[in-house]
Specification:
The chain contains 5 helices and 5 strands. The chain is an alpha/beta fold. Strands 1-2-3-4-5 form a 5-stranded mixed β-sheet, sandwiched between helices. The protein is elongated, with a radius of gyration of 35 Å. The termini are far apart. Helix 2 (about 95-110) runs parallel beside helix 3 (about 130-145). The protein has a domain at about 75-190: STAS domain (Transcription Regulator spoIIAA).
């Protein structure tokens, strides 16, 4: 360390001695093992157990062994009304299991019938995967020459369909009765 001879400047030998003493203190502080009592536990458990008011789960979340709620948050109920299959959707249509379940059921239905109404009145939430699934259902129905209608979406679902402009592609009716009546009117027009 260079010094210009000012009032706070020490000669080089004293500075090196001060650095040496600091290094020795550093080594003593960090290199000497501490007694076992004040050290942290390996398992990081708290030593003051009474503050905990609930039992900790035995399973570890990282190992995916924990008890889970029902995986599927979407229930699908089908009913026939004449030659029309009605699918009542309750829950959420979101990425992964719910969207896949809707897709599986729709695939099975479209193999066996050509008139399907999806009642969306019980759908509480929908995400981009759910919106994409509805668009895919429409595409499948067209490829199979099936008639697909959607009925009674909640205000949230209707708003998302409007926002994504999917309402201009899908046939959406304000009620299940109107969706069923639309099938009858299309049969009358087909005979014209």
């Amino acid at each position: 360390m260079q010094c210009s001879g000012g009032p706070g400047c020490l000669p080089p030998k004293i500075v090196r001695l001060r650095d040496w003493n600091a290094a020795q203190k550093f080594n003593l502080l960090f290199m000497v093992p501490k007694p076992l009592e004040p050290r942290l536990s390996i398992s990081m458990e708290f030593t003051n157990i009474p503050w905990q008011t609930w039992l900790q789960p035995l399973e570890m979340a990282g190992l995916a062994i924990q008890h889970k709620e029902s995986k599927l948050k979407l229930s699908l109920e089908t009913r026939n009304r004449g030659d029309v299959m009605i699918v009542h959707c309750h829950g959420r249509i979101v990425y992964r299991d719910e969207a896949a379940a809707l897709s599986r059921l729709a695939g099975e239905i479209l193999e066996n019938t050509s008139k399907v109404v999806f009642d969306l009145s019980g759908v509480s939430s929908i995400d981009s995967a759910g919106i994409g699934e509805l668009a895919q259902l429409h595409t499948w129905a067209q490829s199979k020459c099936a008639d697909l209608k959607f009925a009674n979406p909640s205000p949230l679902v209707r708003g998302l369909l409007d926002l994504t402009n999917l309402d201009s592609v899908l046939e959406i009716h304000p009620s299940l009765g109107e969706a069923l009546a639309a099938f009858q009117s299309s049969e009358v027009c087909a005979d014209c």
